[in-house]
Amino acid sequence: MRRIEQIAGVDLADGQQRLALHLGIKLARLQGRV
């Protein structure tokens, strides 16, 4: 998990950052980018 935090530049302990990352991944999938 620490590696994901480093690559994405987020703090997964922070609920708002975790939610933003989750929504970003969902949107990318919906748009066919992932």
From TrEMBL:
Superkingdom: Bacteria
Record InterPro entries: PucR_C-HTH_sf
Protein name: PucR C-terminal helix-turn-helix domain-containing protein
UniProt source species: Amycolatopsis saalfeldensis
